[in-house]
């Protein structure tokens, strides 16, 4: 793996850490949106946007939703926007599959907290990259992930391959992750790794920590395989293209 440098230790309490890196050419092959499409690229970590207690409340939303399904492999997905939920080797639509029973699983407060946290993360990203928050749109997929050490059963379980978000999803311009559990306490392995030419830079998850970055090849990344325990996170993705925008999830 070569040289590995830790950008953010679990024990750190970071107000704001930001590293600027030159933008890749990925954005040139897409329509540019002035005042939003990255001209300044990089990656940041903050523990000052979402409290630990809020992260624990959000993790309980993920746990309740994922308890209705779950993948046979090591990675389970819950998307409150589209309703996609891992079930065995497939996905079901949570809202269609469970119908009105969903009101017994989630509350209006859950969805209000989810929206509030999403807005705060969006504002922080806009502030750091010097763009207007209103020029960014939530995009899909935005989803909860639960990872454990169970072997992969389908390609969806293989989260450890290096990838570039903008290449996988052309609409992505800014990606963020809100961690909902603690590295080395709730799970082993599972660190987030930026793969740079000269070294790997890792982020150790901790509940409430937000890691965010521009989505092009300047931020090639992967997640280490989880060795033990359970790792919860939520991926919240943003686009500059209003045509790819999605709304916040609504209950019922």
From TrEMBL:
<dbReference type="GO" id="GO:0016020">
    <property type="term" value="C:membrane"/>
</dbReference>
<dbReference type="GO" id="GO:0031418">
    <property type="term" value="F:L-ascorbic acid binding"/>
</dbReference>
<dbReference type="InterPro" id="IPR044862">
    <property type="entry name" value="Pro_4_hyd_alph_FE2OG_OXY"/>
</dbReference>
<feature type="domain" description="Fe2OG dioxygenase">
    <location>
        <begin position="140"/>
        <end position="242"/>
    </location>
</feature>
<dbReference type="InterPro" id="IPR039210">
    <property type="entry name" value="OGFOD3"/>
</dbReference>
<dbReference type="GO" id="GO:0005506">
    <property type="term" value="F:iron ion binding"/>
</dbReference>
<protein>
    <submittedName>
        <fullName>OGFD3 protein</fullName>
    </submittedName>
</protein>
<dbReference type="InterPro" id="IPR005123">
    <property type="entry name" value="Oxoglu/Fe-dep_dioxygenase_dom"/>
</dbReference>
<keyword id="KW-0223">Dioxygenase</keyword>
<dbReference type="GO" id="GO:0016705">
    <property type="term" value="F:oxidoreductase activity, acting on paired donors, with incorporation or reduction of molecular oxygen"/>
</dbReference>
<keyword id="KW-0408">Iron</keyword>
<keyword id="KW-0479">Metal-binding</keyword>
<dbReference type="Pfam" id="PF13640">
    <property type="entry name" value="2OG-FeII_Oxy_3"/>
</dbReference>
<keyword id="KW-0560">Oxidoreductase</keyword>
<dbReference type="InterPro" id="IPR006620">
    <property type="entry name" value="Pro_4_hyd_alph"/>
</dbReference>
<dbReference type="GO" id="GO:0051213">
    <property type="term" value="F:dioxygenase activity"/>
</dbReference>
């Amino acid at each position: 793996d070569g040289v590995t440098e830790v950008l953010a230790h679990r024990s750190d309490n970071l107000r704001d850490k930001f590293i600027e890196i030159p933008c890749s050419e990925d954005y040139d092959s897409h329509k540019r949106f002035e005042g939003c499409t990255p001209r300044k690229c990089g990656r940041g970590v903050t523990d000052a946007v979402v409290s630990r207690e809020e992260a624990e409340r959000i993790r309980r939303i993920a746990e309740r939703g994922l308890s209705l399904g779950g993948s046979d492999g090591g990675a389970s997905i819950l998307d409150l926007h589209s309703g996609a939920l891992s079930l065995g080797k497939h996905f079901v639509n949570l809202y269609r599959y469970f119908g009105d029973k969903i009101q017994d699983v989630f509350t209006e407060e859950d969805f209000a907290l989810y929206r509030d946290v999403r807005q705060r993360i969006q504002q922080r990203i806009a502030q750091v990259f010097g763009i207007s928050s209103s020029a960014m749109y939530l995009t899909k997929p935005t989803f909860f992930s639960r990872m454990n050490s169970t072997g992969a059963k389908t390609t969806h379980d293989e989260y450890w391959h290096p990838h570039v978000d903008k290449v996988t999803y052309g609409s992505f311009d800014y990606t963020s992750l809100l961690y909902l559990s603690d590295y080395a306490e709730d799970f082993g392995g599972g660190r987030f790794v930026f793969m740079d030419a000269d070294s790997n830079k890792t982020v150790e998850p901790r509940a409430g920590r937000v890691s965010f970055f521009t989505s092009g090849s300047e931020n090639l990344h992967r997640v280490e395989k989880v060795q033990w325990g359970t790792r919860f996170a939520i991926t919240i993705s943003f686009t500059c293209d209003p045509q790819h925008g999605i709304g916040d999830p609504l209950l019922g």
